[in-house]
Amino acid sequence: MIIPKSITFRLTLFFSTASTIVLLLIGLLVDTLVEAHFEHMDQNELAGKLKLIRHAVENVSSDADITALPAKLNDALVGHNDLFVAIINKSHQLIFTTADTNFTTAVLKRIEENTTSKHSDLKVWRHDKKIYRGKISYAKSHIPEQPNLLVLLAIDIEHHQEFMVEFHRNLWIAIAACIGLTILLGWTAARRGLAPVRDMARVTRGVSASHLAARIPRGSVPPELIGLATEFNEMLDRLESSFRRLSEFSSNLAHELRTPISNLMTQTQVILSKQRKREDYREILYSALEEYERLARMISDMLLLAKADNGQIMPDIELVDLAKEVSELFAYYEAVADEKEIKLVLEGHASVRGNKLMLRRALSNLLSNGIRHAYRASEVYVTIESNPAASKETILVIQNSGEKISGEHLPLLFDRFYRVDPSRQKSSDGAGLGLAITKSILEAHQGKIKVSSDDKSTRFQVTLVSASHAD
Amino acid sequence: MRILIVEDEVKTGDYLKQGLSEAGFVTDITRDGIDGLHLLMTEEYDLVILDVMLPGMDGWQVLKSVRQIGKQMPVLFLTARDRVEDRVKGLELGADDYLIKPFDFSELLARVRTLLRRGKTKETELLEIADLKLDILRRRVTRAGKRIDLTSKEFSLLELLLRRQGEVLPRSLIASQVWDMNFDSDTNVIEVAMRRLRMKVDDEFEPKLIHNIRGMGYVLEIPEK
Q1: Is A45 domain-assigned?
Q2: Based on CB atoms within 10 Å of each CB, which residue in A54, A97, A251, B212 is the most buried?
Q3: Residue A339 sits in the same domain as residue A428
Q4: Is some CB atom of chain A closer than 8 A to the CB atom of B83?
Q5: Which of A290, A331, A368 is nearest residue B179 as measured by Cβ atoms?
Q6: Quick one: which H or E segment has residue A391?
Q7: pTM of the prediction?
Q8: Which long-range contacts (CB under 8 A, 24 or more apart) does B53-57 make?
Q9: Does any CB of chain A come closer than 8 Å to the CB of residue B183?
Q10: Are residues A111 and A138 located together in one domain of the fold?
Q11: Does A26 lie in the same domain as A123?
Q12: Are residues A15 and A122 both part of a single domain?
């Protein structure tokens, strides 16, 4: 299992890895440059000495000169203790050397081993615990039988090596220190950079069902996190409003249940308080039955809402012809509408996919609502059409002429147990769950509902996904 | 007609037994699934009312075992849980109907009668009671020889009442049978429709045939003198 690492850790790791790589590359570069610099210096020195030797050798024209050459060269090379020079003639006889014979023999052996390599190349070798850099070259003499003398030149570069060892050590210590420092700096930077996230986390920690009012102040949030902070604040807004509705629902529910139960208790207690006629008992039982029916209906409505909230109300989905459904509902409400001399008018048609029973129930509530609130001898219109703005939407409008519902009630109409007029609690509109049920059913169908009302009429507009576009 | 009630809830069971006995059925009652199954295997019943949640053995298992031994009497399930899966499971196991608590007793009675009648009714073309006649094929209704004009839904409503004369039909059953409204809707609608039908069928005639039984529903019958 991979344990997710903290962002601070990731940033620090990334930052220090990057700077370690950079530092190592710089170290390598410096190292190479210093080496090259020393090599260059050695080469220059060797070239200078070679020039000196060549000059001395050039003046040799007789055997006497050859005999004098060592003394001459010794004079010229005095003070250069770390320099080794050997001059050899063609038959490998040593004419001049600054070191002991042992060393010269060893050098000669190396030359023989390396006859293939070009003589001008600088070579590094180790002898007697010392490191030398040197080259093989020629010097022209004026002795006819020995026109070219082999010149061996070498410098003891041990002090360079010592320097390099020291230099390497210091370099690595510096790099290691820098890496340590970048880790520390990276960690600090990451922590400081993530401070707004921690602030957000602190706000989040303060959020609970009873403290939903906390919001992330937008001013303190860096631009990268504004989106997140906004989403978070909006989520809190939604949660707060849902919570508020839920708690209102609970208190309304308790109230709704208390009223009929209190009625039942009181009337039963009163009727039992003394001996009564048979008809009185019968009457009280009928009255109780009506209360029970109200309770049973409320409970089944609430169960339906709970099921709708949990997405359990759509066992089977089929093609639903809205016009057909509305016509059947018209047939159902025909008698009621007739009593109020209301004309039911249907225009347009469209099909949607959904659960027929549920959609019928949703529309039934709207239609019953429309008829109930319509003026006597008016019309209730149902219009079905495709949304001209978005073809995948079907719009169904139920409109009745009636008293205006004032603006403050409109957004709350679909709330559970909400009633425009609280005194109408006992009237035929049931427990005030009808529109809430309609809304829940439509939402389960990915639909929407909105309501508008003016002095003349009230319109409920239902938006559903057209059948050809529904998945 | 003999009915077995398997219900562990004491009050529910007692009221079911009382109600069904008073409606003219012979009833036996048992409180747990194992006893219920035993009775079903040894006795002959015309119908079983089975609670889902039972001690000993649940309603589904009882139903499964009963069907396995080849008994085909109708089974009406009672349950407090209204979940689609439960309903599907019950019907798959061979239940004939399903009622969710709380239910109207009149609804239960109507469904019991429907189940018992299933497959035994012969389609008649002419339904009548007293001097009211309804001709299904010609879609004509007369009372005392006088033609009565009905809308098509009123015709269906009267047909339902006539087919099940003497039975109290709850509003929900009427809404479901006549208008195909299979949910609790505005019961006011049924009252208005009934009032209008009674106006046409009963107002000018004697005896009154359609009666509202308060808290129960409607019944079509010749009232006892």
Answers
A1: yes
A2: A97
A3: yes
A4: yes
A5: A331
A6: none
A7: 0.61
A8: B53/B8, B53/B79, B53/B80, B54/B6, B54/B7, B54/B8, B55/B8, B55/B31, B56/B32, B57/B32, B57/B33
A9: yes
A10: yes
A11: yes
A12: yes
- Please give the interface size between A and B, counted as residue pairs whose CB atoms are below 8 Å apart: 58
B102 touches chain A (CB under 8 A): yes
In chain A, how many domains are there? Answer: 3
* Residue for token pair 């009123």: B154
Give the domain CATH number at A427: 3.30.565.10
Domain final position from A166, A197, A227: A166
Q: What is the pLDDT along chain A (471 residues), one digit of tens a residue?
A: 566 778 888 888 888 888 889 988 988 998 889 888 888 888 888 888 888 888 877 777 777 777 777 777 777 777 777 777 878 777 667 777 776 666 777 666 666 665 544 445 677 777 767 777 777 777 777 776 667 777 878 888 877 888 888 888 998 898 889 888 888 888 888 888 888 888 888 888 888 777 777 787 877 778 888 888 888 888 888 888 888 877 877 887 888 888 788 888 888 988 888 898 999 898 889 888 888 888 888 888 888 888 887 777 776 788 999 999 999 999 999 889 998 999 999 999 888 988 888 899 999 999 998 998 899 999 999 999 887 777 788 999 999 998 888 888 888 888 888 777 665 544 445 667 888 889 989 988 889 999 999 888 999 999 998 877 544
ipTM of the shown complex: 0.71
Rounded CA separation A348/A147 (Å): 120
Task: Name residue A176's amino acid.
Answer: A
